[in-house]
């Protein structure tokens, strides 16, 4: 028997498990520090994007087989170390994602009310680490920094009416806070221009159909229309949306302004964020942004920085500091230790990008471990955890937690998520 541990039960973890389980004589343990599986599908993908979240049914199919086991509520690093895992398993695959925000390194970034997207997204999605975040929504202005899909998610969630969350699984504390929100003017700040956005067309197009909010683009920021021809088709569609927003300004009570060529240089306020100082930029021949010295001010009671994520380092595991990910040769970190998904390649791509990534790492693992080295695997992990009084949450337990979440949902919502580890465990009588 060959034994593989995957650390992290998000898309990269389950796609890797899906590929590995097709092999003979293999037992795969998917370990997660939370009692609930699916990582970013549960706590990253926007709650009003249920069709994307539906991919979890596919991972459930993987989890419900005999050769893949979910080992929840076990923290690698405290309950069990990486060295212990590599002793117990033929291969250990780190699918830990990139849960930390890249730091916003400007003066004032530490003021209350400046929040990274990992925390803000975790808050509205019910991640236990961020359930008590309580972001300030009492001022009309918000600055969202970054021109990627996460910035779009954050702006859209801030702009939606309670009715627009019908059918979503946004958690109760976020629904209540957003329905009482004073936010009226959202600025999405991009340090470069419309041709340099990292926003996909479907997500951008959604902003054009919001009940009480209208996207606004300054036509002066748009390049000549003929220049769109050199863009790849997806980008061209995205830029077409921006052109439509510029051409058809719609007056609605909430505005979402795209501030292009706009680099935040300082955040100011008396005890909490009150304003963002923004410097106008130009691009050089390599499309890098440079400040022009000209600044303007945005009044904002909340700043959400959506400038990318990083993987936290693990002592003893080689790490690329500049890239915020584990150092690996195409996924091979050290003998017996691998990385997959965002932990391997950094925070880029969609959920689906992890499928070929998982398949490739599974191939490498199977190539390297041969018929296995007679390691203890599952039984060894169980014995070690029992000796430490750590009781893992099984997939069957998770299904009871999920059933309780579904039963608690009202008004056509798919589920009412538990937002603390204690509440999740209470649902299974612990
Ligand atoms: P992203 O796509 O890498 O975008 C990060 C943005 O932050 C870029 O516009 C970047 O600008 C900007 N930025 C970086 N450092 C900055 C700084 N110091 N000051 C100002 N701006 C800065 O990252 P993301 O939005 O976090 O998304 C992560 C991944 O998840 C992406 O692959 C995304 O497509 C995916 N995702 C997909 C969906 C979906 O499909 N619905 C939803 C959410 C996320 P520069 O280009 O100038 O560096």
Q: Could you give the topology of this structure?
A:
Elements: E1 2-7, H1 11-20, E2 26-31, H2 40-43, H3 50-53, H4 56-63, E3 68-71, H5 82-88, E4 91-94, E5 100-101, E6 114-116, H6 117-124, E7 141-145, H7 149-159, H8 172-179, E8 185-189, H9 201-206, E9 213-217, H10 233-247, E10 254-259, E11 262-268, E12 275-283, E13 289-299, E14 302-305, E15 309-310, E16 319-320, E17 325-326, E18 332-334, E19 337-339, H11 342-345, H12 354-369, H13 377-387, H14 395-408, H15 421-426
Parallel strand pairs: 1-2, 1-4, 2-3, 4-19, 6-14, 7-8, 7-14, 8-10, 9-10
Antiparallel strand pairs: 5-15, 11-12, 12-13, 16-17, 18-19
Helix pairs in contact: 1-4, 1-12
Bound molecules: NADP nicotinamide-adenine-dinucleotide phosphate.
The site of NADP nicotinamide-adenine-dinucleotide phosphate has 23 residues, from helix 7.
Oligomer: single chain
Helix content: 25-40%
Bound ligands, named by name, code or SMILES: NADP nicotinamide-adenine-dinucleotide phosphate
- The mean pLDDT is 97
- What is the number of helices? 15
- Label the overall shape: globular
Number of strands: 19
